[in-house]
Amino acid sequence: MRGSSPFLRDLPVLLVAVVWGSSFLAVQQVAEPGTVVAMLVLRFGLVLPLLGVVAWPVLRGMGRAEWLGGGVLGLILGGVFLLETYGAVHTSATNAGLIISLTMVFTPLAESALARTPLPRAFLAAAGLAVVGVALLTGDGGLKAPTAGDLLVLGAAVVRTVNVLAMSRMRAIGDTDPLALTWVQLAAATTVFAVVAPFVGPLPWTVAASYGPAQWAWLLHLSLLCTLFAFFVQMWAVRTTSPSRVSLLLGTEPLWAAVFGITLAGNRLGPVGLLGGALVLVATEWGRRTAALPRPGGARTVDGERAVDTEPAATG
């Protein structure tokens, strides 16, 4: 698409943001509190063979340190998915999509603390606005404490930040191919899920047998679109357009999560909750535009659901 219009080049990346926004609703259609781990085995078990076929030539050439580094990152990634998925089944799709977007605020804050580099005042103001927005969103008109689901998704945002920081600072994987690294991370996380699944709920194949056509459609949506399609579009996009542009387009994910949550899941927010959601959207985008901390070597944000090579100018 090198000779195509900017709109056509941007459209696939925007579609990634849309499918990511729908992922919280999709999770609610295929998982319950007792089947979260089994569902995660199915979700990534479907996509790993497909990714593995493409990644095999690179995987064969990886060194021991790269495999170990990817495995460690996979354990962190597993924590992200567990918190995010358990959170999504205990709160609304709208809340989950907006709260997870706080990673865009947490990551520059953590990078600043580690590098002892002050952030722009505008970013700190955006971070404060995001906190206020989440408080209004989860309280929705009162002084109610956040639900367990809200707190789990918030924890996922924190652990996702840890994953990004660990990836950017782990020298062993500095030159590892993104596709191979993604496969190793997902394989490590899925292996842990498969080992744990029998002790925390029904077996994955039992859950698979219980799914009807609609649930299988949602599961394939999570595996093929939210993971496989998203990865390859991002790998293409960072080679055909600027990383900052990719980051900006992917930053619309929480907006789409709110759209799907309200229109399809029937989520209802009062006036204060709507104000809180709007503040989160404004604050995360404001923070994305004002924070421009360089990451060592250019961080590679690859977590199976959100995977993109970022340049120093990109924050997401």
TrEMBL record:
Q: Where in the cell is it found?
A: Cell membrane
Q: Which residues form the EamA domain?
A: 13-138, 148-283
Residue numbers spanned by region Disordered: 294-316
Look up the signal peptide feature and give its range.
none
Q: Which InterPro entries match?
A: Diverse_Substrate_Transporter, EamA_dom, EmrE-like
UniProt keyword annotation of Methyltransferase present: no
Keyword Coiled coil attributed: no
Residue spans crossing the bilayer: 36-58, 65-83, 89-110, 122-139, 151-168, 180-201, 216-238
* UniProt keyword list: Cell membrane, Membrane, Transmembrane, Transmembrane helix
Q: Which family does it belong to?
A: Belongs to the EamA transporter family.
Put simply, this protein is called DMT family transporter
Q: Give the organism, scientific name.
A: Kitasatospora aburaviensis
Q: What is the lineage of its organism?
A: Bacteria, Bacillati, Actinomycetota, Actinomycetes, Kitasatosporales
